[in-house]
Design goal:
Blueprint (H helix, E strand, L loop, with lengths): L4 E5 L6 H11 L3 H6 L5 E5 L1 H11 L4 H13 L3 H4 L4 H21 L11 H10 L3 H8 L5 E8 L5 E7 L11 E5 L4 H7 L9 E5 L2 E6 L10 H5 L4 E5 L20 H33 L17 E5 L5 H8 L5 H8 L5 H11 L3 H17 L1 H8 L29 H4 L7
Parallel strand pairs: 1-2, 1-8, 2-3, 4-5, 8-9
Antiparallel strand pairs: 3-4, 3-7, 6-7
């Protein structure tokens, strides 16, 4: 597949708007506008699955879909993602109270999540034409799309792949790989944040089960994209780069439930990608120095050097969320604040749930500016020094040196049903 570039986007709830900002700026690169989608392989988990499927479904017009994707994120309302009305919140709260107080007597297990994410399914169905993914694969605009979800019955991570005939397949002890047509249900399952959004029922080749967020079991987020044949990896993270060197805060108070949940989400959504990139760079150094042979260790698969590019927020998104908490509907704000002693204690948790236009617009601007500040690096990575763009992997897919990958999607509310549909 030549120098196929793989795009990796992990989760982060509302933080996914940052990814949209980065992609929008990449879509403005002249060579991207001229030669089309530079990312034949796309992998997403959680919010990254939403953005990845959007790109895949619109990969016939990368420049356009990145603009539309950013606009939809900027216009997002909490009611587009979860129910915010008094009746729904009251019913959900009563269910939790009954389970926790009297579940041992009258039978529990009725509370499935803190919020009802049913509106997300309607929003995606309205704006995303998943049928266009296969059409773009058929026409050569995309090689493969992979999204992750976690099976709550077996505890295994599932990787759903839709790609060209003959694409790689593999299975590991705690990882199941299935070739399937990806639908809105798969996306909702991948984006179902544990405890916050309810599990999603999926019918698979291995049976029917309930699935949740893909980041739960995705401890090596680069692995799927590499196994699918990517020679270079472009990753968009949602963890502020300055947090790696942040001083420990001296707080003698017991942590609130909101703080604990925020830390758990940070571990699940933010840490694995950076760690995997560091691991990849270390392996590259060992391969380059000859300390490890490319033939690999006996009994293991052959290894090869891979270039990578990681772009992450230049600001603390939790701190930004703290500034925008009052934009949330009062009932949701009241509910989240009840889990913590103050706005600061809730900021990490709120940064994943703030699906408000002011917050997502701010994230888009940050992503756009971060990409602009590194646009020469990005373009150099996307298009190698080998001169002109290489022959595409398949018709319509540009390749080249890149640390970022992507693909397009048709959002029907803005673009109508794709003109590429038969």
């Amino acid at each position: 597949m030549g120098n196929a570039i793989g795009l990796v986007m992990t989760g982060g709830g509302a933080r996914g708007a940052y990814q949209a900002g980065v992609l929008k700026r990449i879509g403005e690169i002249k060579r991207v506008q001229t030669h089309g989608n530079p990312f034949p392989i796309i992998e997403g988990a959680s919010a990254g699955a939403i953005n990845g499927c959007s790109l895949a479904a619109g990969s016939d017009d990368f420049a356009l879909v990145t603009k539309v994707l950013a606009r939809l994120w900027s216009e997002l309302r909490p009611s587009d993602i979860f129910r915010c009305d008094v009746l729904s919140q009251t019913r959900n709260s009563l269910t939790w109270i009954l389970d926790l107080s009297f579940g041992g007597v009258i039978g529990g297990g009725n509370a499935h999540s803190l919020l009802d994410a049913t509106p997300l399914r309607h929003f995606l169905s309205t704006h995303l034409n998943c049928d266009q993914i296969q059409e773009n694969i058929k026409r050569g605009h995309l090689y493969a799309l992979a999204i992750s979800a976690t099976n709550y019955s077996s505890g295994k991570g599932y990787l759903f792949i839709q790609g060209m005939k003959g694409h790689p397949m593999w299975n590991r002890s705690r990882r199941v790989t299935l070739a399937t047509k990806i639908t809105v249900e798969h996306i909702c399952a991948s984006a179902a944040i544990p405890l916050i959004f309810q599990p999603v029922r999926l019918e698979t080749a291995r049976g029917t089960a309930f699935f949740g967020d893909g980041c739960v079991r995705l401890q090596q987020p680069l692995s799927p994209i590499i196994r699918l044949g990517a020679k270079k990896v472009f990753a968009i993270g949602v963890r502020g780069r300055h947090l790696e060197h942040q001083e420990e805060a001296a707080d003698q108070r017991d942590p609130s439930l909101a703080q604990v949940l925020g830390i758990l989400f940070n571990v699940m959504f933010l840490d694995h990608l950076a760690t995997d990139i560091e691991h990849l760079e270390r392996l590259n150094q060992l391969l380059s120095s000859g300390q490890i042979s490319q033939s690999g260790i006996e009994g293991c698969e052959k290894m090869r050097p891979l270039t990578s590019f990681l772009i992450t927020p230049s600001v603390d998104l939790s701190q930004l969320a703290e500034e925008h908490q009052r934009d949330m509907p009062y009932l949701i704000q009241y509910f989240v604040n009840s889990l913590g002693r103050d706005a600061t204690a809730c900021s990490d948790l709120m940064s994943y749930l703030l699906f408000t236009s002011k917050y997502t617009s701010a994230l888009i601007d940050i992503g756009y500016n971060d990409a602009s500040n590194r646009i020469d690096e990005i373009e150099s990575f996307l298009y190698s020094s080998e001169g002109d763009i290489e022959e595409p992997l398949v018709s319509g897919v540009g390749t080249g040196r890149s640390r970022q990958a992507g693909s397009l999607v048709k959002w029907t509310s803005s673009l109508g049903r794709s003109a590429g549909n038969p």
